[in-house]
């Protein structure tokens, strides 16, 4: 192989690497991200069944229902609308009624949101930045929240 | 009192750095005592840091920062670690490490005096920037306006020995790149030949080794403390520590090319600036609260803007100097289809693409929110599906790269490698046929074992095995790669072949995990110094005499009204059995058991990498 041919080969290889990286990124930004909604937003949206999304809000007071030691029902709310959520597994330590939480999962056929992940941050005053605004809009913002 | 001493010495240290820059460039003093002033300012910054630590140790609640983040009945180690367990203190730690690096750099021998001074002047400049940031937006020495006898307490999740030492080590890595940055900029200004590259190499290895240790400690902490059974979550904070790590790895490898006498200075300077920029950028993202994460402290807009400003000054200044003063004499690279130089170039390209991919995924939510006002989250699936495939060709390359030649494209003993690869492929294929076949598992295991095998073949066929320091230094690159191979095996096994078992149990129940009988002995609550502990006790393998007890549960911290989970982990060399205690109903407890094969290999691999980092630093 001549020196020039070897360099050409290297450049082509580099281009292939970069191209495949770009394709990978483009494909995955379409497939592997989940959109974030508040309960009132998701009710208005035309979300399809089994599409993975995240919902952020409060755990509604008096809505928490322990079915067994590992399966739970509760409602998540932003004071305008609320969604029934069912979850199997271990809830985070700071999961409590009246506290902020973010849940990830999808709707089933009966309009129940099946959570695969529940996130409650490790600070009792923590509020997901993403629902801050909608809380301020509705006037439920509490200065204590960070 | 200690707060006053701390604040004064902090300000005085900044003043000295001002004086150094002014005296050099405005008054043109010929400083005889330049190094003395640098060291004096370092010691003052240390004094400032230790007076804050003293305030924490004696629980001096007249200091507002101590009042906010400490409590008198905390164990001593967490009083000390509380010093950097909050925003203000951690920024002071950052500054402190910066000046400690300057301190040690001022002792470097065998380099041009002027070059050394210029480097230290740039360090002084950085010291002033971060020093002013602390004084104006995050002063840890503020006086508490009300008289109190008790503090508010440290976030319980930070009360852990692993996390107590994690920030200083991680910061040593981040801030270590400041020296590399200063060296590169000074190198650009003075346009000295090659010499500074050797100095830069040493310091970038030191930083990289610390960064490796810091990241590993952080993920080990996440593994046993957060109780999710995993050790890497592609959380923004993890991503931003990974970016300078990969860029630093690229830097360390490009600096190797200096030895092949083909200095690609431009690229090295670019990487040096990039590494430190990414470190500052990471700090900005975490501190500003733009990205939410488990680790983020309270957000404060003014701080975010200030750090953003510092980031733009440093990055802008760095890249501006880079464009204006780029090294002229670049020798053409000796690129062949497959020699060491081309392997290193491809490895650098891959690492930079990986860094950019992580960067994109980390800031993508911000971009989307600004552009479309939609909120998204980019999690593990995105990073797994992009970063891993990008890295795979790099891993393949690293198995043979150390034995490639600088000048020709011939591989010594190529038959041995081909034979080794074929045998290994068959073995892994047979192994994965008997376990349930999984593509990622197959690829990961093959890659990991291949890197280990190729490095071992290289050591035994290229060098005479002797037991001397020189031999240890020569085979060091291979050892580092064996560490990577071991870590890849661990990562693959623990993520692909993880097994999850769920149980609903009452006290006294027996159940089977991995063929061994486990007894759920009892649930009990006890009072500890600063928390209440709820513990489930399990006896593992009760049929044998060698009983192993596992404790798993939750801690309740009354001071901050918080609960933390304590996972119970039974470590074995080939697997971790990981217990998580869930909720209960009618005395029936939910218990999740995860079997994580070969997790210990990850930490073992990382320790080998750090060992090689230290050996490489010692090498001339």
| Low-confidence runs of at least 5 consecutive residues of chain A | 122-130
Output the strand order for the largest sheet of chain A.
Answer: 2-4-5-7-6
Strand order of the largest sheet of chain B: 3-4-5-6-7
Strand content of chain A: 25-35%
C-alpha-based Rg of chain A, rounded = 22 Å
Number of strands of chain A: 7
Mean pLDDT of chain A: 77
- Helix/strand-derived category of chain B reads alpha+beta
SS elements, strand count of chain B: 10
Indicate the proportion of strand residues of chain B. Answer: 5-15%
Helix content of chain A: 25-40%
Structural class of chain A: alpha+beta
Distance between the termini of chain A: 64 Å
Order of helices and strands of chain B: HHHHHHHHHHHHEHHHHHEEEEEEEEEH
Largest interface: A-B, 43 and 51 residues
Key features of this structure:
heterodimer; A: 146 residues; alpha+beta; OB fold (Dihydrolipoamide Acetyltransferase, E2P); 3 helices; 7 strands; elongated; B: 620 residues; four-stranded antiparallel β-sheet; globular
Concise synopsis of the structure shown:
The complex is a heterodimer of chains A (146) and B (620). Chain A has 146 residues and is an alpha+beta fold.
Write the layout of secondary structure elements.
The complex is a heterodimer of chains A (146) and B (620).
Chain A: H1 3-31, E1 33-37, H2 39-44, E2 53-59, E3 65-68, E4 71-77, E5 82-88, E6 100-107, E7 113-119, H3 129-138
Parallel strand pairs in A: 1-2, 5-7
Antiparallel strand pairs in A: 2-4, 2-6, 3-4, 4-5, 6-7
Chain B: H1 2-25, H2 34-57, H3 64-69, H4 76-82, H5 87-105, H6 113-137, H7 161-190, H8 195-225, H9 236-256, H10 265-288, H11 301-324, H12 340-372, E1 375-378, H13 380-400, H14 414-434, H15 439-462, H16 469-474, H17 476-496, E2 499-505, E3 510-513, E4 516-527, E5 532-540, E6 548-557, E7 562-566, E8 568-571, E9 575-585, E10 588-597, H18 599-618
Antiparallel strand pairs in B: 2-10, 3-4, 4-5, 5-6, 6-7, 8-9, 9-10
